[in-house]
C-alpha cells in the first residue's frame, strides 16, 4: 500500500477518525514513505493542515450553479407538510410554465417515518398539479431492489421522479438528473445518553456543511435549485461543521477496536478531536465489566 485516501471526511465517523490516527501513527513510526489524502467538498482544511503537517490542494470540480431559497420565517409545521407544500410549488410552477424543468426532485428527511409521510404529501401534490412522476423512498431499511430503483439512471423528461431520502443521498450516492433539492435540514444523529448509558438516535438540525453537501446534489448535471425548509436566520445559528462522532457516542466499541489493532493507550491515540477523559474512563469500565479487556 503506497497511499491511503479518506474520502467524505466531513462526515467525521469514528471509523474515519480511527483510520486517520492509524495512518498518522504508521507514518510517524514504520512507514514514513506512506502517503495519505484526506478529501471532502466541505473540509476543515486549516485544522487538518496543522494536525497532519501538510498542505491543502483545492480542486475546482465542474459543477453548475445552484440557487438557494429559505423559508421567510421559522415554522412549527411538520417537516413533511413543509416539504409537501414546497413540492407542490415546484410542480405547479413547471406545469403552468412559470418555472423551468425541475428534473428529478430529491427530498431529504431524517428517517423512514418522515419519508413515508412525505411520500404521501408528494402524491397529493402530483394529483393537484397534474404532473406525472414516480414517488420513491430511499433509506437503509428498504430491500436492495427498491433502493436500486430509486438511484437507477433515467431521463427526467421520460420518467420524472420524486425521491425522498435520508442523508444516505447526501454524499454516498449521485442520482443523475436531480435539479431540485428540498431539504428538511434534519437528520437522525447518534448521541450518547448518560442517563441510560447507551447511544440514542435523535432528530437534530444538520450543520451548514451538510446542508451545502445536500444542495450540491442539484448541480451535478445542470443548473439547479435548493429549497431549505428553515429560515435564513435559523441557518446562521447552525454549526459550521458536523461534530465528530467520537465526541458524541459511547466509546466502548471504538476503544475495543483500537486496542485490538495494537493501540496500547486509547487516551493518547492521535485523535483529531480527543474524547473527554471522563467518557474514556466510562468506556474502560464498561469493557472491564464485560470481560473484554
Q: How would a crystallographer describe the biggest sheet?
A: 6 strands, parallel
Structural class: alpha/beta
Amino-to-carboxy terminus distance: 31 Å
Radius of gyration: 22 Å
Globular, elongated, flat, extended or rod-shaped: what is the shape? globular
Instruction: Output the strand order for the largest sheet.
Output: 3-10-7-4-6-5
Assembly annotation:
single chain
H/I helix tally: 10
Helix content: 25-40%
* Share of residues in strands: 15-25%
Mean pLDDT: 90
Order of helices and strands: EHEHEHEHEHEHEEEHEHHH
Low-confidence stretches: none
In short:
The chain is an alpha/beta fold. The protein is built from ten helices and ten strands. It has helices spanning 14-28, 45-52, 79-95, 112-129, 144-151, 168-171, 208-216, 232-236, 252-260, 277-289; strands spanning 3-6, 35-38, 66-71, 104-108, 134-138, 161-165, 178-183, 186-193, 198-205, 224-231.
Amino acid at each position: 500500500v503506497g497511499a491511503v485516501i479518506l474520502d467524505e471526511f466531513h462526515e467525521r465517523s469514528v471509523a474515519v477518525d480511527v483510520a486517520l490516527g492509524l495512518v498518522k501513527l504508521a507514518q510517524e513510526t514504520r512507514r514514513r514513505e506512506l502517503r495519505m489524502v484526506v478529501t471532502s467538498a466541505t473540509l476543515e482544511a486549516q485544522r487538518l493542515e496543522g494536525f497532519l503537517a501538510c498542505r491543502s490542494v483545492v480542486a475546482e470540480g465542474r459543477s453548475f450553479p445552484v440557487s438557494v431559497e429559505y423559508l421567510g420565517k421559522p415554522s412549527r409545521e411538520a417537516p413533511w407538510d413543509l416539504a409537501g407544500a414546497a413540492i407542490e410549488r415546484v410542480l405547479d410552477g413547471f406545469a403552468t410554465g412559470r418555472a423551468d424543468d425541475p428534473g428529478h426532485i430529491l427530498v431529504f428527511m431524517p428517517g423512514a417515518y418522515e419519508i413515508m409521510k412525505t411520500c404521501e404529501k408528494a402524491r397529493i401534490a402530483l394529483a393537484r398539479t397534474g404532473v406525472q412522476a414516480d414517488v420513491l423512498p430511499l433509506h437503509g431499511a428498504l430491500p436492495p431492489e427498491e433502493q436500486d430503483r430509486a438511484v437507477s439512471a433515467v431521463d427526467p423528461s421520460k420518467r420524472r421522479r420524486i425521491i425522498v431520502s435520508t442523508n444516505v443521498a447526501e454524499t454516498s450516492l449521485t442520482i443523475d438528473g436531480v435539479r431540485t433539492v428540498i431539504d428538511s435540514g434534519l437528520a437522525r444523529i447518534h448521541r450518547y445518553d448518560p442517563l441510560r448509558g447507551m447511544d440514542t438516535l435523535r432528530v437534530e438540525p444538520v450543520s451548514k456543511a451538510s446542508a451545502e453537501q445536500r444542495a450540491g446534489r442539484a448541480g451535478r448535471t445542470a443548473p439547479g435549485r435548493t429549497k431549505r425548509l428553515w429560515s435564513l436566520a435559523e441557518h446562521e445559528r447552525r454549526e459550521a461543521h458536523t461534530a465528530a462522532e467520537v465526541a458524541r457516542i459511547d466509546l466502548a466499541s471504538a476503544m475495543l477496536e483500537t486496542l485490538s489493532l495494537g493501540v496500547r493507550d486509547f487516551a493518547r491515540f492521535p485523535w483529531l478531536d480527543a474524547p473527554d477523559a471522563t467518557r474514556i474512563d466510562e468506556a474502560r469500565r464498561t469493557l472491564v465489566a464485560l470481560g473484554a479487556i
